[in-house]
Amino acid sequence: MTLESALLGFAVVAGLMTITPGLDTALVLRSAVTQGRTQAIATAAGICTGVLVWAVAAAVGISALLTASEAAYTVLKVVGTAYMLWLGFGMLRSAFRRDPHGLTVQAENLKPAGLAQCFQRGLLTNLLNPKVGAFYVALLPQFMPSDTPHLLAGVLLGLVHNIEGMLWLSLLAYTAHRARAWLSRPKTQRLVDGLAGTAVIGFGLKLGLSRH
Question: Which end of the chain is more exposed for a tag (fewer CB within 10 A), N or C?
Fold first, then answer.
C-alpha cells in the first residue's frame, strides 16, 4: 500500500464517519444557533484539534497503551462521562431558564461565549472520550504504509480526518447561520438547547455504561 492510496482509502472511511450525526454535530449546531457562526467554527476547531491529538497519540502508541490498560481507560471514561453529563445538563438548564421572550434568568446567559471557551469545549469533549482513541487504534494500522514512518503516517491520516471534519462542521455552522432568522427565535433556541443537551447526556451515558 502506497502512502497516496492509504490517504485516499482513509479519507473515504473517515469521511463517512464525519458526516454521521453524533456528539460533534450536536455541539456545533447548538453553538451556531445559540451563539453564532464564529463560535460554532471555534467549537469545530476544538473538536478537530482533539481528533488530531488522538491520531498522533495512536501513531506513537499512547492510545494503544490506554486501550490495553483497563484502569487508565476506566479513569478517562469516568472523567469523560462526568464532563459530558455536566455539559448536557448545562444546556438543559439554559433551555429551561430561557423565557418565551428570549430573556434568561441570569444576565450572563445573554453574553455570547468567548471563542476560547467554545474551542475548549470542543477540545475537551473529544480528548476526554477514550472511544476516539480506540477508533484510531483500530483503524490506523489498516492504513499504515510499510515504507512510511508510523508517526508521519499517523499525523497525515489525522490531518485528512481533521480537514474533512472542519469542512463538514463549518458547512453545518454556515447553514445554521443562514437560517438564523428562524433559528434565532426563542422557542427554537430552547428546542435546540434541549435537544443538544439531551443528545450530549445520551452520549455521556452511553460512554459511561459501555464496557469497552
Answer: C
| CA 9 to each of CA 17, 137, 160, 197: distance values in angstroms, whole numbers, following the listed order | 13, 16, 11, 34
Is residue 87 within 8 Å of 200, Cβ to Cβ? yes
Among 139, 116, 115, 111, CA closest to 51 = 139
What does the alpha-carbon distance between residue 207 and residue 190 come to, in Å, rounded to a whole number? 26
Q: How far apart are CA 62 and CA 96, in angstroms?
A: 41
Q: What string of pLDDT tens digits covers the 212 residues of the chain?
A: 788 888 998 898 888 878 877 788 888 988 888 788 899 999 999 999 998 998 888 888 766 666 667 776 677 677 767 777 877 787 777 667 654 444 343 333 445 568 999 999 999 988 888 778 777 877 777 787 878 887 888 889 889 999 999 999 999 888 887 776 565 566 666 776 677 667 768 766 776 676 65
Buried-exposed string 69-81: b where 16+ CB fall within 10 A, e elsewhere: eeeebeebbeebb
Q: How far apart are alpha carbons 173 and 196 in whole angstroms? A: 15
Yes or no: say if 139 and 153 are a contact pair by the CB < 8 Å rule.
no
